[in-house]
């Protein structure tokens, strides 16, 4: 059995000491599977349970649901897949079904680095338990996934996925529980991360390009927002802001056609979140994590991002304080109102621990 006391002591040494009117961030291991976790997402998968739940994917093909119950957390394996599930997303895709839907992407069979087909799977609870339905099969690994309103010409949300076929796919619910590919967009490189925002969807590509795909009368068209050298891996977006990062360790923000570097890490970054992490202040905050194991807030002093958080001031008037640390590489970061804990961050990675950060 792991020494949780020692581990949490290490974890909490990085927590942020907030001003008197704010509670400090607290870190808690809520699920430990002992195997690499690839992705996590937060959303309302169990309508009868207060707050949101967390889904997490693992390197050995497990899809796990984690939810708050009383003072603790429980988890259940809802799918055991023959291939590695890299990332996941939760959102409303089928308006006729209660609660949100969970989508995972990865390999049909085998691990991420093995040759073979990629797959997109929809997971939802039926009368007899959790069911998994294949939505799309591709010639290579599917690595990025996002759910949101990427197509203003149609009501409701779309599912946007992409990976190592150098294509992005936009899928839409067609009724009667059926989904279809609405559009396919060719890209210049593999897609590692996807977010819905700006006027459509944003792709973080392996060739260092940040690309927006926008719905036009003839389909979706790509537009390059940023072009770098090193691979991009994670992205978050709102209607006017994009936060993105990757192998270079640079966390950058795109706003009004301009790009600023907010943070430079000594290792690869694998997390990009935009959310109202400080509800007592106007605007939104960001967060990131990566291979160095630290989870950091991204808080602006001016403009639309405002926070009372302390920390070293960086370019553009931003703070990037650390709120916690894991002793393994972090691979993904998500945000949501988990259980009764309010707005939280959840992080996962190579240690096999799912960590909840809450106030």
How would you summarize what this structure contains?
The chain has 359 residues and is mainly β.
Over the alpha carbons, how many angstroms does the gyration radius reach?
A: 19 Å
Content of β-strand = over 45%
Biggest sheet character: 6 strands, antiparallel
Question: What structural class is derived from the secondary structure elements?
Answer: mainly beta
Which term fits the overall shape? globular
Record keyword descriptors for this entry:
359 residues, mainly beta, 3% helix
Overall description:
It is globular, with a radius of gyration of 19 Å. Strands 22, 23, 24, 25, 26 and 27 form a 6-stranded antiparallel sheet that branches. It has a 4-stranded antiparallel sheet with strand order 1-30-29-28, covered by helices on one side. The two termini are 28 Å apart. The model is unreliable at 1-21 and 306-315 (pLDDT under 50). With 359 residues, it is mainly β. Helices cover 3% and strands 56% of the residues. The relative contact order is 0.15. The protein is built from 1 helix and 30 strands.
Layout of helices and strands:
Blueprint: H1 4-12, E1 26-32, E2 37-43, E3 53-58, E4 62-69, E5 72-80, E6 85-91, E7 101-107, E8 118-126, E9 129-138, E10 142-148, E11 158-163, E12 167-175, E13 178-186, E14 191-197, E15 200-205, E16 209-216, E17 219-227, E18 232-237, E19 241-246, E20 250-255, E21 258-264, E22 273-275, E23 285-289, E24 294-300, E25 313-314, E26 318-319, E27 322-325, E28 330-337, E29 343-349, E30 353-358
Antiparallel strand pairs: 1-30, 2-3, 3-4, 4-5, 6-7, 7-8, 8-9, 10-11, 11-12, 12-13, 14-15, 15-16, 16-17, 18-19, 19-20, 20-21, 22-23, 23-24, 24-26, 24-27, 25-26, 28-29, 29-30
């Amino acid at each position: 059995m792991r020494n949780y006391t020692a581990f949490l002591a290490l974890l909490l040494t990085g927590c942020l000491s907030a001003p008197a009117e704010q509670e400090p961030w607290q870190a808690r291991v809520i699920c430990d599977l002992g195997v690499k976790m690839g992705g996590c997402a937060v959303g309302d998968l169990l309508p009868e349970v207060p707050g949101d739940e967390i889904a997490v994917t693992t390197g050995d093909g497990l899809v796990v649901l984690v939810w708050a119950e009383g003072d603790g957390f429980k988890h259940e394996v809802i799918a055991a897949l023959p291939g590695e599930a890299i990332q996941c997303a939760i959102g409303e895709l089928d308006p006729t079904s209660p609660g949100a839907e969970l989508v995972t992407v990865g390999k049909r069979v085998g691990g991420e680095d093995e040759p073979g087909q990629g797959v997109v799977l929809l997971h939802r609870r039926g009368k007899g338990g959790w069911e998994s339905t294949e939505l799309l099969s591709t010639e290579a690994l599917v690595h990025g996934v996002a759910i949101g309103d990427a197509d203003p010409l149609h009501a409701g949300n779309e599912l946007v996925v992409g990976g190592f076929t150098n294509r992005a796919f936009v899928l839409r619910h067609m009724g009667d529980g059926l989904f279809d590919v609405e559009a396919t967009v060719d890209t210049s490189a593999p897609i590692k991360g996807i977010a819905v925002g700006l006027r459509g969807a944003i792709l973080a590509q392996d060739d260092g390009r940040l690309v927006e795909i926008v719905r036009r009368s003839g389909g979706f068209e790509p537009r390059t927002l940023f072009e770098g050298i090193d691979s991009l891996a994670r992205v978050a977006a709102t209607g006017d802001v994009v936060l993105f990062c990757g192998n270079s360790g640079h966390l950058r923000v795109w706003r009004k056609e301009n790009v600023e570097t907010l943070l430079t890490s000594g290792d690869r970054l694998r997390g990009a979140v935009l959310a109202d992490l400080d509800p007592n202040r106007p605007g939104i905050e960001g967060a990131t994590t990566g291979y160095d194991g630290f989870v950091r807030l991204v808080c602006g002093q001016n403009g639309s991002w405002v926070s009372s958080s302390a920390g070293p001031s960086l370019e553009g008037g931003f703070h990037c304080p650390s709120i916690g640390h894991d002793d393994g590489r972090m691979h993904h970061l998500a945000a949501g109102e988990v259980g009764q804990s309010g707005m939280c961050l959840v992080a996962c990675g190579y240690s096999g621990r799912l960590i909840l950060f809450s106030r």
